[in-house]
Design goal:
The protein has a domain of 107 residues: Serine Threonine Protein Phosphatase 5, Tetratricopeptide repeat, CATH 1.25.40. It is built from 13 helices and no strands. It is 79% helix and 0% strand.
């Protein structure tokens, strides 16, 4: 008895969930051979190939899915991930940007997709920061935070880069926001004190650093900051 296309797709998803990627590919290929050229079929086959380490085959499948449905957001995302794994960072960034562009046309991104894209932007930011291209790294962190404004670990990384780049007031704005949301984030408090100090607000810096010591006594970093402040006020 010939199984329906719907049944084959369901079986392929079951094989995929059981990590039987070869089994999923076999079932999906049967569908394609029957002439069932659905974007979801090519996308799932691409995912299966990518998880088997066959990256070029995966890219072919994601490309086929996007030919059928150029607005297929997850296909853009997974294509970007594979390109990133191959070291093709510019193409990966373009793929992620396509996902964002299409999502903006259709409304707000689902939370899990927004989070995944934000982390991809953060990875790109870290790569640019590592080679000293701070302006681009800062832009990537800002793009990540446009997607997930409550990712305060990413906002903290952005603030540290802003301090490194000499954008003290911008860093202070980001750090004030972090500390307001997470008052027990001592590292952010310490950096906020530094941003206040560097922007000419010595009293504000002392207030923050003193509060840090109340939360975490014997913190060498905070002790050093307060000692520096005391010397400059003599």
């Amino acid at each position: 008895m010939t199984m329906s296309a719907e049944h084959l797709v369901a079986q392929a998803h079951e094989r995929f969930s059981l990590q039987d990627y070869y089994g999923a590919i076999h079932l999906l290929s049967d569908l394609v051979d029957r002439g069932c050229r659905f974007a979801d079929v090519f996308h799932l086959r691409g995912l299966s190939y990518s998880l088997l380490g066959q990256h070029e085959r995966a890219l072919e499948e994601f490309g086929a899915a996007l030919e059928l449905n150029p607005r297929y957001i997850e296909a853009h995302i997974h294509r970007g991930i594979v390109l990133g794994e191959l070291g093709r960072s510019d193409e990966a960034h373009a793929a992620f940007q396509q996902a964002v562009t299409h999502s903006e046309r259709e409304g707000e991104l689902p939370r899990h997709i927004a989070g995944r894209l934000a982390n991809q932007h953060a990875d790109l930011a870290a790569s640019y920061a590592e080679v000293g291209v701070l302006a681009v790294a800062i832009g990537q962190y800002r793009r990540a935070l446009e997607l997930c404004s409550d990712f305060h670990d990413l906002r903290y990384r952005l603030a540290r880069l802003l301090l490194e780049a000499g954008h003290v007031l911008d860093a202070r704005t980001e750090l004030e926001q972090i500390v307001a949301a997470r008052p027990n984030f001592v590292d952010a408090q310490a950096s906020l004190g530094l941003a206040r100090y560097l922007s000419g607000d010595a009293n504000g810096a002392k207030e923050v650093w003193t509060a840090c010591l109340e939360q975490r006594p014997k913190n060498a970093r905070i002790d050093a900051y307060l000692a520096m402040l005391e010397r400059t006020q003599l």
